[in-house]
TrEMBL record:
It holds the Pfam family COesterase. Residues 1-28 form the signal peptide. Residues 72-395 form the Carboxylesterase type B domain. GO terms for molecular function: hydrolase activity. Keywords: Hydrolase, Signal. It is an enzyme of class 3 (hydrolase). Belongs to the type-B carboxylesterase/lipase family. Its EC number is 3.1.1.-. This is Carboxylic ester hydrolase. It comes from Thermothielavioides terrestris (strain ATCC 38088 / NRRL 8126) (Thielavia terrestris). The lineage of its organism: Eukaryota, Fungi, Dikarya, Ascomycota, Pezizomycotina.
Amino acid sequence: MAPKRWISVLVPASTLVLCALLAAGAAAGASDSTDLATQFVADLIANVTGLMQQQQAEVESSRSCSNDDPLVVDLGYAKYRGYHNATTGLNYWKGIPFAAPPTGNLRWQPPQMLPPNPDAPIVNASAFGPVCPQSPPSSAGPVGFIPGDEDCLYLNVYAPPQAVELPVLVWIHGGGYGLGDGRQDMADFINANNQSFLVVAIQYRLGAFGWLSSAEVKKRGVVNAGMLDQVFALAWVKTHVRRFGGDPDRVTISGESGGAGSVMYHGIALEGTLGDLLFRQGIAASPYLPFQYDYDDALPTKRYYTFAKFAGCPGSGDVFDCLVGKDTLTLQVASANVTQTAVHGYWGFWPVTDGSYIVNRPSQQLLTGRVNGRRVLVGHNANEGSFFVPRNITTEADLVNWLSGSEFPNLSPAQIDAILAANPNSAPTDPAGPHFATDGRGTAAAGDTVVQVAPDANGQLQRASNIYAEALFVNLNETGGTPYTTQLYWGPTVTQMAEPGLRNAFGLGSGVTWEGGRKARCDVYLSLADSIPL
């Protein structure tokens, strides 16, 4: 089915119009010469504005003939009843599908609309939908494998009672594009801000299911399928969020790690020509932007064929059809196996430059100053590279071997030396040295304190952690503030763990004055961006 047809009916319309469009799309699909991703994006841009106007009229009409239960929403393809959580004081709608299951012949295809069903019964939206197939990053241990369900394009809505035209925050979960889900409870986040907005938390295809890439994949389907899932979810928000009390003209997209990287990708999409069509603002916490290859470069192509080999498909001929025909468990295990062959701390599949939605690399597009949305807030954490760095780096020789053999294999010895010079050795290399030997910014003799140094690395290992974090998590300039530390545990939110009454205090800082040599380091990475590539 041609994307131009099914995007055109994303918003509920009459059954006759829908059926006519679907039939026309099926007839046109075989003759489309434009690649599916390009057509998907072009039609999305052409239709969203008009669809929103149509939706507004339909919402007003449906309100007059629907029941008075504020927890029941009619999406045109299904009806859902949410529930009120007396503990959090919020309304919840869980497990709402926003696209058809991307299974079978829909693997590695653009997300498809769900068929209209004006007579759909009301379904309780009280349980999360399935999580996507996923795996943890590569490590020295056994292959990590977390079974999931390919039918995973679901979202969850959290809204204050009696919400009307509230700003909307779309949460894109992190996990390096290979891990995670949209099940985070956003109640603390909303209540800490006086119930002044609602949240839509989305899921998207992960691992090989979302990011498989090669010339054959692009010819037969789409690369960056996970990114198009996110785009489709944003279109869903624009067309349906008013039914939950949200304002589709005040959408902020937000995420952490891979979710934050996704925020930045949407910011540079289509060379920054989308404006605020899909969102107005972005919040990116530790944006994870790993190596940015073209869709048909050697590495993503190699992993395509490695994935096929693990799945039991031939290394030549019609590999794509073989993969489409495989059972889901075989593909899930194959995706995890490819990740395990990757460098320590990485996943096997990431976003690529596809020429359709992600036209340029971030290092190229951001320099032009053309980005989508009106403003973006970017933050990062101290010592966030340590989780992804092998723990056996104890000498400078270990560090060089890791940089040249694993982290930046495309760089020359001179380029590796430039990175080392920008990250000077300010700590002892003795592995038995003090646990808090350095934070990578100076020496203990220069006045470092326990507040500044890393709790999980010292010496060359901390040096490696700093390099990883600044190069791949887009650690931008720090513009001031007072350090505050507290022990956090996996699971609870910061508002649950921090001292009562703790709040961020914002002030005017200098956005052009760089701290601690960070500009020099940033300039080095920028000069190497084409080679890395970033």
